[in-house]
Amino acid sequence: MTIKEKKEFLKKYQQINNEIDRLLSERERYFALATKITTTYSDKPQSHSNNSKIEEAIEKITMLENKMNEEIFKLTLQREKIEKAISTVNNKTLEELLKRRYINCETWEVIAVNMNYCWQYVHELHSKALKAIEYDTNMC
Questions:
Q1: C-alpha radius of gyration, the chain, whole number
Q2: What is the pLDDT of residues 69-105, one digit of tens each?
Q3: Does any domain span residue 81?
Q4: N or C: at which end does the chain have fewer Cβ atoms within 10 angstroms?
Q5: What is the number of domains present in the chain?
Q6: Domain that holds residue 88
Q7: Is residue 140 part of a domain?
């Protein structure tokens, strides 16, 4: 894996988190729809067709939720692959830098301040950290 490929692979972590958050929000919205009960009062007799429409809606919402849960599971596995790749770095400083950048999404300036290094040196460490990753995305 080239340095560029490693960077792109690590950058996917935040995209995955964003997608998981979006799916969780959407799932909550569907759950709210499924549990929302509206009562209508009327003098007219009710048919049983309303019940079957409600059942159909709940069934569809349940299917959507199941699909979302599957997608969240797949995304979580991808996220774990990235975490595993970072853990292959056998230097705690370099590993910390990668976690701060790709998992915590810290800026270079924040990383430099928090790690007590100058901005330039953080970039040198980043280059070393990327080279130190010993992970093949095809292995998993």
A1: 24
A2: 899 999 999 999 999 999 999 999 999 999 999 999 9
A3: yes
A4: C
A5: 1
A6: 3-132
A7: no
Residue 28 domain-assigned? Answer: yes
What residue has token string 């970072």? 86
Q: What is the DSSP string of 68-115?
A: HHHHHHHHHHHHHHHHHHHHT-S-HHHHHHHIIIIIS---HHHHHHHH
CA-to-CA distance for 37 and 28, rounded, in angstroms? 16
Burial class of residue 51 (count of CB atoms within 10 Å of its CB; 0-12, 13-18, 19+): exposed
Token look-up 């490693």 returns: 6
If 0-12 CB within 10 Å is exposed, 13-18 middle and 19+ buried, where does residue 134 land?
exposed
Coil, strand or helix: which one is 134?
A: coil
Nearest to 7 by CA among 80, 98, 77, 74: 98
